[in-house]
Automatic annotation (TrEMBL):
Its cofactor is Mg(2+). Residues 1-494 are annotated as: Adenylyl removase. This is Bifunctional glutamine synthetase adenylyltransferase/adenylyl-removing enzyme. One of its GO terms (cellular component) is cytosol. The gene is glnE. The lineage of its organism: Bacteria, Bacillati, Actinomycetota, Actinomycetes, Mycobacteriales. PANTHER family: BIFUNCTIONAL GLUTAMINE SYNTHETASE ADENYLYLTRANSFERASE_ADENYLYL-REMOVING ENZYME, GLUTAMINE SYNTHETASE ADENYLYLTRANSFERASE.
Length: 1001
């Protein structure tokens, strides 16, 4: 019986196999893989991360093997495991492809079923240089027979062979259905291989340093970092510390030679984690190590010691080293500088990564490997003294131990572990490609790079996205999960300790909660726990939303200068807005609002009451189409709104109350934007001045309107308010009073005496209404710069002012008029007053020598008498060396001298006058720059003092938490208040040299 021919499957074309090279079809014919019998090989090849690279490598292998190619070809057809390992390896790593081609016979090692254990690895690398045990040297000390230059090549070859076997088994699941090698197993095997490499390097070092005599030193080699934790990468520095007895020349030479051999043959060895870093001795005795850590070590050094592990050399000495230092590690959290050191370390790590690389950086970016490792290590340090179960070295093992102890939630630990292992998988694949140390993802527009990484990382299309799309989604998802869980890791257990959120969660003990809050920067952790209990104890939906929000809010608060005050302020704001249903919803839905609110509350004592009384400001923390709403408001429009709103009221008290309310909102807006770094100094000062001007205008109008209604006739005089000092210069700070002059002009037909009496009554009522006690920042109107000071009439007529200034004006009064500017009341009268005083304040021919001497005398008297007792002249922002008074008096003296010649000096603003001085070349541009910088620096520091303390202040504090808080609010880039203070004193000292030369003559 004749059977019909069996249908034979078609051989897939090169394109269907993912082969893009034009010569791919020729290469398949050269391998004799263009037939039906080769279909299993072809489909396996198509699953290789880079099928073209794999095919090219196979062609190169065939050429190198010659007649021996048939053995490999037959094995690949018969052995699925070998096929998966080889194709995955040469399609993932160009470095290992080249390694195989250089020694094709090594393909046989890929048939091995199991990975070698640590002992076998050590034996294999020692055998490469013919090493034998060193008599009396312990199990890890050997002497190499081959120790010349050729030893490096022998060790490198043997190390790469072992590394290749691991990589092939690790990658095999990408091609065939081989088991996925667990992350922990990969890290441990790499660490065991590193131990074996270091042992072989030490054997060569022994032969080189002691060629004809026994070793007399005991040298312990301590692995640190990832190697110490047995979670090493494929390509990584290996951090080592050396301990020796005695720490003599021989021990030092052995350590140095070990580093040299290992660096040339295997991987770079870094000993910078030793005491004193690279400046310290390479080798120390155990006693010397202990002495250093007791006296000089920093917090980060104890954090590094968490992962220490004896790797090779004298293991007994290594264990003694570990036993001596571990107790100090677990006491590190009790150090006074622990919190500040930890916060500084975290910021330093974040600052290492350029902003445009943070989304591609697996190790140091936001939501990266370092975030996980840092958080886990911090929790270990905080709780390790009380719980020995946390005395583990690996990140994954530590997460499991923290979850078992209730220090982190079980689900959070499991999710964080999964994300950590995913990110480490990507890191490993990137490093295998060329055996280069890297942690950077391909650029978003590098389609080929992303495609290769997706296939190497076992990504498969999911029906909606191709493999690259799946990879990108996974990267984004895991980075976001790390970011989210980073906050929950610290704070979710704290909330569990005060409110049962999950019936199955293990509850953190009150003592552990206090320890954790203290380590996160809370000075009064017991009080902080009380606030958390109150916030989460709210009934119903609000309590649930608070529990959802608080982990993230607390993380943001923990990064502020005063988290204790910030948490209390948040509780007060929450309770104050209890009836506002939008508040918690806004924080939940707008992360920018929530984060900015926490920064503000944890930085400023000035703002909480304002925000409670002007809660609508919180909504302005959001971003609008043109940027943050806090900065898109125009100050001039705010003033118009205040005046318009007040105009609706006939009762002056109600009118001023309305003006206060609107002022409160504007102060909250400006101060919030200032704390958040959204406004510069001139913008802050101008905004504060304009709102003061608007309130004055509103108050004057309201009082005049009420007076006219009461009398039933128009006012007998026009009244103008002239701003003086910082108000006149539109350079007010948060703690500034409003210096003013009141000037009136009787209307035609009015009796002057009655008119002046009426104006005095209006001015007095304006002062009293604005200065009435209030929970808001004060509104003090000071008319002390009027003629004859506080002994003179509160209000004078324009003619009386003119007569006084022409006949009696003192030099200091003339100087004060330099900052006079119309701010409220009758605009025409104010302008006439300014024109009248122009002849006084801008004298023809300049100021007289006698007046200059008098101004200098008064300044010297101010310096000696008005500086508060005990104040430090170097750091008093107003009256100190190179402070505001120094700069302003210098500018005003130049105005008195040259304003008649330089019309641009007819200006009440210090900064604008400095610009005019520079343009007119009255001072060198460098000198003007020093004066301008000092004025801006002192003003910023003075404003920051008020924002931080919540009340007016001029004296910068000494080093400590308060100074650090002032530095942060003043825009200093880190928490080092001492650096900020040094900068302030340097800037003002340089300005003082200009002041002494220009003002002092």
């Amino acid at each position: 019986m004749v059977r019909p021919p069996t249908a034979r499957p078609a051989v897939p074309g090169a394109g269907r196999l993912g082969l893009l090279e034009p010569t791919a079809a020729d290469s398949l014919r050269e391998l004799a893989w263009d037939n039906v019998e080769s279909i299993p090989l072809l489909w396996a090849l198509s699953r290789s991360p880079d099928a073209d690279l794999a095919l090219l490598t196979l062609v190169r292998l065939r050429e190198k093997l010659g007649t021996d190619w048939s053995a490999l070809d037959s094995a690949l057809r018969a052995e699925t495991a070998l096929r998966g390992r080889l194709f995955a390896l040469i399609g993932s790593s160009k470095a290992f492809a080249d390694h195989l081609v250089a020694d094709p016979a090594v393909w046989q090692s890929l048939r091995r079923r199991e990975l070698p254990d640590r002992a076998e690895l050590i034996a294999d690398l020692l055998a490469a240089v013919g090493a034998r045990p060193e008599p009396g040297g312990g199990p890890m000390l050997h002497r190499a027979e081959i120790h010349g230059p050729e030893s490096i090549a022998l060790l490198r070859k043997r190390y790469r062979d072992q590394l290749m076997l691991l990589a092939a088994i690790d990658l095999a699941a990408t091609v065939e259905n081989e088991p996925v090698l667990p992350y922990l197993q990969v890290g441990r095997h790499l660490s065991d291989l590193a131990d074996a490499a270091l042992t072989a390097a030490l054997a060569v070092a022994v032969a080189r340093v002691c060629p004809d005599r026994p070793v007399t030193s005991r040298l312990g080699v301590i692995a640190m970092g990832k190697c110490g934790a047995r979670e090493l990468n494929y390509v990584s520095d290996v951090d080592l510390v050396f301990v020796a007895e005695p720490a003599d020349t021989e021990a030092t030479r052995l350590a140095a030679e070990l580093m040299s051999v290992a660096g040339n043959a295997f991987f770079e060895v870094d000993a910078a984690l030793r005491p004193e870093g690279k400046a310290g001795a390479l080798v120390r005795t155990l006693e010397s190590h202990v002495a250093y850590y007791k006296r000089w070590s920093r917090t980060w050094e104890f954090q590094a010691l968490l992962k220490m592990r004896p790797a090779t050399g004298d293991l007994e000495l290594g264990e003694e080293y570990r036993a001596a230092l571990l107790p100090m590690v677990w006491n590190a959290a009790e150090r006074s500088d622990f919190v500040t050191d930890v916060q500084a370390m975290r910021r330093r790590v974040e600052d290492l990564v350029p902003a445009d690389m943070r989304e591609r950086e697996l190790k140091l970016g936001h939501g990266s490997l370092r975030d996980v490792e840092f958080a886990v290590q911090l929790l270990q340090l905080v709780h390790g003294k009380a719980d020995e179960k946390l005395h583990v070295q690996g990140t994954v093992e530590a997460l499991a131990a923290l979850a078992d102890g209730g220090y982190v939630g079980r689900d959070d630990a499991a999710n964080l572990t999964a994300s950590y292992e995913f990110l480490r998988l990507l890191e490993h694949r990137l490093q295998l490609q060329r055996l280069k140390r890297t942690h950077t993802l391909p650029a978003a527009d590098d389609e080929e790079g992303m495609r290769w990484l997706a296939r190497a990382a076992h990504m498969r299309p999911d029906g909606r996205q191709d493999a690259v799309g799946v990879l990108q989604s996974e990267i984004k998802r895991n980075a976001m999960r790390v970011r989210r869980l980073h906050a929950k890791l610290f704070y979710r257990p704290l909330l569990e300790s005060v409110a049962r959120l999950d019936a199955d969660a293990q509850r953190l003990s009150p003592e552990a909660a206090v320890r954790q809050l203290a380590a996160l920067g809370y000075v009064a952790p017991e009080h902080a726990l009380g606030h958390l209990k109150a916030l989460t104890g709210e009934v119903g939906r609000k309590g649930r939303i608070q529990a959802l929000l608080l982990p993230t809010l607390l993380e943001w608060l923990g990064d502020t200068p005063n988290p204790d005050a910030g948490l209390l302020a948040y509780r007060r704001v929450s309770e104050g807005l209890d009836d506002e249903i939008w508040f918690l919803r806004e924080l939940r839905d707008e992360s920018a609002v929530a984060q900015r609110l926490m920064i503000v509350l944890g930085s400023s004592a000035y703002l909480p009451d304002l925000l409670i009384n002007a809660p609508e400001t919180i909504r302005m923390f959001a971003d609008g189409p043109d940027g943050p709403l806090l900065t898109t408001t125009k100050p001039a429009e705010v003033g118009s709104r205040i005046v318009a709103a007040v105009a609706r009221y006939d009762d002056p008290r109600r009118a001023v109350a309305t003006a206060r309310s609107l002022r409160r909102h504007e102060l909250a807006r400006v101060a919030s934007a200032d704390v958040l770094g959204m406004l510069d100094v001139p913008a802050v000062c101008r905004s504060l001045s304009l709102v003061w001007v608007a309130v004055l205008e509103a108050a004057v109008q309201a009082v005049i309107r009420a007076s006219e209604l009461e009398q039933g006739e128009p006012a007998p005089a026009d009244l103008a308010v002239i701003g003086m000092g910082r108000l006149g210069g539109f350079e007010l700070g948060y703690g500034s009073d409003a210096d003013v002059l009141f000037v009136c002009d009787p209307r035609p037909g009015a009796d002057e005496t009655i008119a002046v009496k009426w104006a005095i009554g209006v001015a007095d009522q304006v002062q009293r209404l604005l200065g009435a006690p209030s929970t808001d920042p004060p509104l003090q109107v000071d008319a002390g710069l009027r003629p004859e000071g506080r002994n003179g009439a509160l209000v004078r007529t324009l003619a009386a002012y003119q007569a006084y200034y022409q006949q009696w004006a003192q030099p200091w009064e003339v100087q004060a008029l330099l900052r006079a500017h119309q701010v409220a009341g009758d605009q025409d009268l104010g302008v006439r007053f300014l024109r009248m005083i122009d002849a006084v304040r801008y004298p023809a021919g300049g100021v007289s020598p006698e007046s200059v001497r008098e101004i200098r005398r008064i300044k010297a008297r101010v310096d000696s008498e008005r500086l508060p007792r005990g104040a430090n002249p170097a750091t008093h922002t107003k009256l100190g060396r190179g402070g505001l008074a120094d700069i302003e008096w210098t500018v005003q003296l130049l105005q008195l001298r040259y304003a008649d010649e330089v019309p641009e000096l007819h200006n009440t603003s210090t900064l604008e006058s400095l610009d005019a001085i520079e343009r007119a070349e009255l001072l060198d541009a460098t000198d003007v720059g020093l004066l301008r910088d000092a004025w801006l620096t002192a003003t910023k520091a003075r404003n920051a003092l008020v924002l931080v303390r919540g009340k007016p202040a001029d004296q910068l504090p000494g080093p400590g938490r308060l100074l650090s808080a002032v530095a942060r609010v003043a825009g200093w880039p880190n928490d080092d208040g001492s650096e900020f203070l040094d900068h302030y004193m340097r800037v003002t000292r340089r300005a003082k040299t200009v002041v002494e030369r220009v003002f002092g003559g």
